[in-house]
Amino acid sequence: MTTNPLRQPQDRRLPRIAGPCSMVVFGVTGDLSRKKVMPAIYDLANRGLLPPGFSLVGFARRDWEDQDFAAIIHDSVREHARTEFREEVWQQLSEGFRFVPGDFSDDVAFDHLRRTIEELDESRGTGGNHAFYLSIPPRFFGDVVRQLKEHGLADNTGGSWRRVVVEKPFGHDLESAQELNAVIDEVFPSGSVFRIDHYLGKETVQNILALRFANTMFEPVWNANYVDHVQITMAEDIGIGSRAGYYDGIGAARDVIQNHLMQLMALVAMEEPASFTADALRIEKLKVLSSVVVPQRVDLASARGQYTAGWSGGVEVPGYLEEEGIDPDSATETFAALKLEVQNRRWAGVPFYLRTGKRLGRRVTEVAIVFERAPHLPFADHSTEELTQNALVFRIQPDEGMTVRFGSKVPGTAMEIRDVTMDFAYGGTFTERSPEAYERLILDVLLGDPPLFPRHEEVELSWKILDPVLERWARKGKPEPYSPGSWGPESAMAMLERDGRAWRRP
Ligand code: BG6
Fold it and tell me: Which of the following CATH numbers is that of domain 200-435+455-497: 3.30.43.10, 3.40.630.30, 3.30.360.10, 3.40.1080.10?
């Protein structure tokens, strides 16, 4: 084996710890903040990855004092944190909690915010380094970033940094995404903007690139000569819960396909990046996303559905139209499936089928690379009746790992060949438990490490792919009903049957 003499040895045991800083969260009372962001901050503190003076500032339209804010975080941490609760960690962390009441048009509140972070720089040594996390509806992004600018909060001064973190949805189509990006660009340079697609923070998603580019045995068959098609599924068994306000009018394609599934597809289909820097990754993702199209006849290459009332996991559940806060006439889809083509040499003729939905059979996310059949089988026909196609499946969640399916001889005197599987499971292989995606991503924001954050060009290309489908659906009226616990509407099955294929039953 040859080693590169220029490569400096690094101590892998040294954790990446954020330097002095604070994070200001807008929309701190929302679901995402309570269930994901605050618990992730506690988990990072518990793992010793935050600086001792780390501070968390909440900004919201509530009449709260710092201690009321701390009580809310306490509840969210106790309920949702991944790691055990340790009083000493909590005590140290909670000394840095501050709350600023106000709304986004309130100049007095933004002055108060500026004084608050100045006070943190003094009392907790946050060093002028502050991340502003926008966990708010995108229609307010402009108001908030402009206020940050006007109140001197967005300026990087004297070697310190200011960053903005943006949660999806990044618009509802290409045009609105471009407008949003323009608003943010006015205030923050692109290197200071961190767009969250939490799928990129998942270990199993990062493993797609590790598997492809750290090994020799997969890449030679990773192309149209060997791959028959690719299926990407993100299925949930839950309904929309209390998220009517966010979800209605958005729907499954905008909520999940435009971001999470297109990013997964880009990782599966892209060429090897020159390095793992943000720029090198972006170049390859942009190249592949620029080659993606929906086939001409959108109706044959897409399907959408809306769940009806019924039974899910032994419980009677309402239909989408009966959910609290949903317009009983809503045409929002809760299931979406799409067939995409990647028009380049590597993938010509290989369909990528993407699907996502709520209230499906079970919660599972997977990427399946399904290979062509062997060109010739030197066996009697009946020997291979139970042999299907080879497949490599990334099990993104919940049972994290990878499965390879291939044919093997069944023990016995006859030559009978049947599918078998070989599994790799994170749980059984590694002793470390995977961190939550938000832990990794928040740490990366504080470290200023951008590779896991999509750039605006990627976001815009994804909308460009999806827009013709959304336009067509808007003209067609209502989505097709499907029962809870099923795998979506009939038209989704028909979409693959027309191609002589079938969706996997994960
Ligand atoms: C979010 C979507 O981005 O991802 C939700 O807005 C969805 O609708 C969620 O439920 C699923 O995330 P995960 O990590 O549980 O697969």
Answer: 3.30.360.10
Q: For residues 334 and 463, what is the distance between their CA atoms, to the nearest angstrom?
A: 18
Give the span between the Cα atoms of 191 and 334, in whole angstroms: 35
Give residue-wise pLDDT tens across range 180-215: 999 999 999 999 999 999 999 999 999 999 999 999
Ligand 1, atom 9, residue with closest C-alpha? 256
- Mean local confidence (pLDDT), 248-273: 97
Of 130, 172, 260, 456, which residue is the catalytic one?
260
Q: Is 260 a catalytic residue?
A: yes
Convert the pLDDT of each residue in 423-459 to its tens digit: 999 999 998 888 999 999 999 999 999 999 999 999 9
Two structure tokens written together for 414: 């006859």
CATH number for the domain whose boundaries are 14-167 = 3.40.50.720
Average pLDDT over every residue of 109-113: 97
Scanning the structure block, which residue is given the tokens 């990878």?
402
3-state helix, strand, coil in the chain (%, to 5): 40, 20, 40
Query: What spacing in Å lies between the alpha carbon of 200 and ligand 1's midpoint?
Result: 12
Q: Which protein residues touch ligand 1 with a CB less than 6 Å away?
A: 198, 236, 255-256, 365
- Taking the whole predicted model, whether its pTM rises above 0.90 is answered as yes
pLDDT of residue 9: 52
**What would the two tokens of residue 33 be?**
């903040």
Write the CB contacts of 46 (distance below 8 Å, at least 6 apart in sequence): 81, 83, 84, 86, 89
